[in-house]
Amino acid sequence: MPNGNTEAKIFTCTQSKELAIKIATAFGVPLGNVITSTYSDGEFQPSYEESIRGTRVFIIGSTNPGPENLMEMLLMLDAAKRASARHITAVLPYFGWARQDRKDKPRVPIAAKLVAKMLEVAGATRIITMDLHADQIQGFFEKPVDHLFASTIFLPYLQSLNLDNLTIASPDMGGSKRAYAYSKALKSDVVICYKQRAQANIISHMELIGDVTGKNVVLVDDMVDTAGTLTKAADLMMERGALSVRAICTHPILSGNAYEKLEQSKLEELIVTDSIPLKQKCSKIRVLSCADLFADVMHNVHYNKSISSKFIM
């Protein structure tokens, strides 16, 4: 049972409203009422239009850039803290700014650590998120972090395809751990792409480690941004004799001309979650909702039940 008679209330930031409605429905409570006032210069102010004193508040919002998404989450957290909510959980389907998780050259920030501290200072007493860019980002928080894996969504879909000669692929060396975890669950082979970047989002060279001849390949990654890596990897694998190439990416950032790249590529399909709303339609994108996963975990958190099964790849 929850502590005392603590009531659970679910609210959403603007960018995640569609997903939040699904989560609230699955959780079994109505989505809370928040209005946002906007000044002419772009400054905005969210306001809870119902009492949240003594409640457990879940605030749903991905913090993908632009910066207003993160700012809205911070303001919502601060408002909940000042309104005397007992527990304040930031539900971040996508934890933005996570690629800056270390100093990879002199005189740069560690943005992921900065964002973690801002969330805590703003009032978050717990974080629920999914497929962090790097697992160690959990260590940037002093509050409890529930790091969920979207594999619980993707694996049943992959198994339903009944693909022969299935091979899991990582689009880079950094994603090899994730690829091996999927291959273990699916009892398949693994190949890895080795890439070199001229600069951020620009690949100068890519090579394939492993054999894909006669294989149905599934690329696995935590996010897809410009789609340059995925489309280049798919084209390379088809040139090397693959029967088909699909991709699984949890977070569909899809910036720049990513949609055009996907349509023109040799990818069979791109499977994503709805952690970030799509900007436009694409015939090659299949969206699997993460609403039930988050609703289940939020329910268990509220009622002090185990959620360890959601951490298993």
TrEMBL record:
Enzyme class: transferase
GO biological process: 5-phosphoribose 1-diphosphate biosynthetic process; purine nucleotide biosynthetic process; ribonucleoside monophosphate biosynthetic process
Transmembrane segments: none
UniProt key word Membrane: no
Reaction catalyzed: D-ribose 5-phosphate + ATP = 5-phospho-alpha-D-ribose 1-diphosphate + AMP + H(+)
An annotated GO cellular component: cytoplasm
Keywords on record: ATP-binding, Cytoplasm, Kinase, Magnesium, Metal-binding, Nucleotide biosynthesis, Nucleotide-binding, Transferase
An annotated Gene Ontology molecular function: ATP binding
Occurrences of domain Ribose-phosphate pyrophosphokinase N-terminal (ranges): 9-123
Pfam families: Pribosyl_synth (PF14572), Pribosyltran_N (PF13793)
Coiled-coil annotated residue ranges, if any: none
The EC number(s) this enzyme carries: 2.7.6.1
Keyword Metal-binding tagged: yes
Protein name: ribose-phosphate diphosphokinase
Species name: Bizionia arctica
Lineage start: Bacteria, Pseudomonadati, Bacteroidota, Flavobacteriia, Flavobacteriales
